[in-house]
Amino acid sequence: MKRPFLVLIFLMLLLSLACSIPGKNQPEDIEGEVTVETTSPTQAVAVNPTQTVYSPPTARPTSAETPVPVATQEKTQEPTLSPTEPESSCPLFGIEEFDTPGGCWPDSVDKVFSSASISDINKINVQVKDSRLEFESQLKEDVFLYSFYPDNEYDEVIVRASVTKIEPSRNQNGFALVCHINRFGWYEARVESSGTFEIFQYDALKKQNGQNPFLRLGSGGASSFRTGTGRENILELQCRNDSLTFIVNDKQIWEKVNFTSLNSGGGVGVGLASYSNTFPRHIGFEYVEILEP
Fold first, then answer.
1. Which of 18, 133, 190, 221 would suit a FRET pair with 33, their CA atoms being 20 to 30 Å apart?
2. CA 195 to CA 257: how far, in whole Å?
3. In angstroms, rounded to a whole number, what is the distance separating the alpha carbons of residues 149 and 90?
């Protein structure tokens, strides 16, 4: 009876040993699946660097290229923006002696400015003749003719001119120097051949409203003015941002300082300013000089 029992025990030992032999099983398959999952994140990491590699280079050339066109535009704009003077060959400062017509100063009736209406354009004349800029009128009404120097403007400036009376001509001829010509108007110094002077502010707004635009700032006698036909007089109007000074033949005859309401800055000009019922009127500018204060 013991032998069959021993055989049974031996068979049970064999079966237990057979179950403990290593081989492929489910845990190893799961580990394999885990390996695949760890490989998948590795591929995802490989994709992300690809995106970071391509994105910055796309941004960098953009930022790197941006300054290039800007610098190129600045270089190409310099020749266009800086040479404002070549558009007008008229210098900022200097002297005009009117040796020939057609210079920088307007020198004909159709080019000059008139602040009053003209009843008969055939009775006025503006020309360069005998090396001077001449203004002439045969009209009975007020005449205000101006040759404004084109294109150039000044914060502060000095206008100096040599003037003469040309016969036949009445004494009430206003040699006019003008400065600070801007949208508000201008400032003007006049001297008559009789030796009196007036200083005016021309108010453009009053002109638009149909009022007299000339506001007198000062007047009096200019004892240094040399009266008589063909006698040279040197007039000088100094225009700063808060003062006006009028000088005749190197003698100061009028000045206004600390001019807080001065509409400063603008162009310059010369001209004829004369009142009604005084004709004929004929004056000449031998030269006009624009100076830096």
1. 18
2. 24
3. 9
The DSSP call for residue 210 is T
Q: Give the DSSP letter of residue 184.
A: T
> Per-residue pLDDT tens for 184-215?
999 999 999 889 999 999 999 999 999 999 99
Domain shared by 70 and 121, yes or no: no
CATH number at residue 138: 2.60.120.560
Q: The tokens 């081989």 sit on which residue?
A: 23
Q: Is pTM beyond 0.85 here?
A: no
Task: Return the HEC string of 152-176.
Answer: CCECCEEEEEEEEECCCCCCCCEEE
Residue type, 197: F
Q: How many CA atoms lie within 13 A of 98 on its CB side?
A: 23
Residue 98, in any domain of the structure: yes
* Residues forming beta bridges with residue 289, ordered by sequence position: 95, 160
